[in-house]
Amino acid sequence: MAGVEDQVSSLPNSLPITPRTAPIMFHHDDQFGSLPITPRTASVAQTPSILSLPITPRTARTPSIVSLPPSQFHSPSLSRSPLLLTGDHATNKPVKTPRSRGLTPRFITPLGSPLRKALKMTRLDPQDAWLPITESRNGNAFYAAFHTLCSGIGIQALVLPVAFTILGWAWGIIGLTVAFVWQLYTLYLMVQLHENHETGLRYSRYLQLACATFGENLGKLSSAFPLGYLSAGTCCALIIIGGSTAKLLYETLCGATCSNPKPLTVVEWYLVFTCVAVVLAQLPNLNSIAGISLIGALTAVGYCTALWTVSVAEGRLPNVSYEPVRKGSQVNKIFDLLNAFGIIAFAFRGHNLILEIQATMPSSEKHPSRVPMWRGVQFAYLLIAMCLFPLAIGGYWAYGHLIPANGSVLTALFAFHSQDVSRSVLALISIFVIINAVSSFQLYGMPMFDDMESAYTTRCKKACPWWLRSIFRAIFGFICFFIAVALPFLGSFTGLIGGIALPITFAHPCFMWLKVKKPKKYSLSWWVNWGLGLLGMGLSVILIAAGLYVVIDTGVKISFFNPQ
Q1: Packing angle between helix 524-554 and helix 330-347, nearest 10 degrees?
Q2: Minimal CB count within 10 Å: which of 2, 121, 140, 153?
Q3: pLDDT tens digits, one per residue of 453-473
Q4: How far apart are CA 537 and CA 539, in angstroms?
Q5: Interatomic CA distance for residues 413 and 421, integer angstroms
Q6: Following DSSP, what letter does each residue of 308-344 receive, concatenated?
Q7: How confident is the model at residue 143, as a pLDDT?
Q8: Considering only CA atoms, which of 178, 143, 417, 184 is closest in space to residue 290?
Q9: Is residue 72 within 8 Å of 111, Cβ to Cβ?
Q10: How far is CA 254 from the centre of its chain?
């Protein structure tokens, strides 16, 4: 130390030296604490060039960190904003974010340690405050449960007993159980992948995560078409189911006693359903339809429970058989079997909405959105299991092989028990189906609304005005109406569609987990995800081939612009 003191004493008197007797505290946001910086006196002798620099008092301008709100995740963006400011710019001025019409919180802080905050840039997405999925992030576990339950139970559950007619009791229950557990596991992976702790980003849409994981070209190639069908195609199917059920309700309540000499045709009922759905579609964002999702979820639970309880209460039909219905050659039997598994896969198709639902929730490092999201998902899937398994097992027990091949439990109930069951009960079930179809239309249509508005905001760099938003949604609704009228036989392709959409639910989440989380090679997680991912992709190819074969072999009654 004597050598150091001699060097210091030889310095000019014009260089003021401020002794540091205590550690200097470098203050950051409260949630990260503070970093003590102690003087490095031992290194002075080794670096004499430092002594030639002027040493200024503590009052001089030094870099400081802007005081920011609690750390929150962001969605991917091309715009970046630095957090480390110096001089006059180191103020506490609020960062400007795009103005939103709703109660949209401002997201300006990344997730990470103080060092990451100092060295990395904040990635902001100004469009998030303008788009319907992320316009409001005030959701909670209850909203997540409502949305998940409404999307998890629906028209796809009504066709499960049809798969049992081909698989039989044993393989039907095994296939349904395996599919339920498998998709619940991949759903858990999706919830965990929504937030990236390394980059502080939130992937608010399935396609965003796919492109970030697999690359822009491969992500769009593998996911764009299935996601488009799962949104727009489901809306078309909902118009067909809702319009047909509305006609059935009218006939149930009126029947031969109706005084109207010219009742509405099927196409006109489709139009009535579409108009109602378009009116409800004017609600601005995903959080704003939480009440509609709640009503849709309650009605879904209601009609699923009513269908299997009424069917079981009426007893088994005479001459019912539980022998698997497999006709033709051995090849035909194999493809029929695979097509039945495709029908089961078709029943689990809500994964394309999970990231979008989670995007409506606030998130920070201390309170990540995955915690309330998973709580809501667990509650929702408990109710989904209580609906799907009794509906599939009870419906197959009551009707056996007599369930129409291209029908559902609903059509079987009206076909065999329309004279035995009270008209009020049949009408109540029909009303529940219609309400659930209208509610599900809003949920499945939201990703398409988001895409249309995203194209506008990307081009015009401003929020979509309300009148243009209304036009977009009306156009989408009536395009779906046109497709439903032009292609009313879409229900015959259930197995094929299940094979096409299968990777979205059963395979892609496993590969995303491997790419993002990078589990240790040959560990249990590594084996499980590789095995399930490859099995899912293989099953998808086989089920698509089986679905095409069954459609070609059995034939489909093509009736363009002639819905029955």
Answers
A1: 120
A2: 2
A3: 999 999 998 899 999 999 999
A4: 5
A5: 9
A6: HHHHHHH-PPTT---S----SSHHHHHHHHHHHHHHH
A7: 94
A8: 143
A9: yes
A10: 40
The secondary structure of residue 172, as a DSSP letter, is H
**Cα separation values, 359 from 136, 204, 452, 493, 507, Å:** 9, 5, 18, 32, 22
Question: Distance between CA 207 and CA 355 in Å, rounded?
Answer: 10
Going by C-alpha positions, the residue among 304, 203, 247 that lies closest to residue 516 is: 203
pLDDT tens, position by position, 111-158: 444 434 333 333 446 678 899 999 888 989 999 999 999 988 877 888
CA distances, 90 to each of 4, 39, 83, 415, 543 (Å): 35, 24, 10, 74, 60
What is the rounded CA–CA span in Å between residue 171 and residue 177?
A: 10
**Paired strand residues for 451:** none
64 by DSSP, 3-state: which?
A: strand
pLDDT band for 29, please (50, 70, 90 cuts).
Answer: very low
Q: CA 207 to CA 223: how far, in whole Å?
A: 7
Q: How far is CA 256 from CA 123, 260, 263, 268, 443, in A?
A: 65, 10, 11, 20, 37
Which amino acid is located at 180 in the chain? F
Tokens 């209601």 correspond to 302
Greatest alpha-carbon pair distance for the chain in Å reads 114
Length of the chain in residues, anyone? 564
What angle is formed at CA 205 by the lines to CA 204 and CA 207, rounded to 5 degrees? 145
The number of C-alpha atoms within 13 Å of 19 and in the hemisphere containing its C-beta is: 3
Which comes out higher in pLDDT, residue 120 or 10? 10
How confident is residue 560, by pLDDT bands cut at 50, 70 and 90? low
Helices (H), 418-523: 423-460, 466-486, 494-502, 508-517
Average pLDDT over residues 271-294: 94
From residue 269, alpha-carbon distances to 154, 241, 497 in Å are: 20, 10, 25
Read off φ and ψ for residue 518, nearest 5 degrees.
50, 65
Mean pLDDT over all residues of the chain? 78
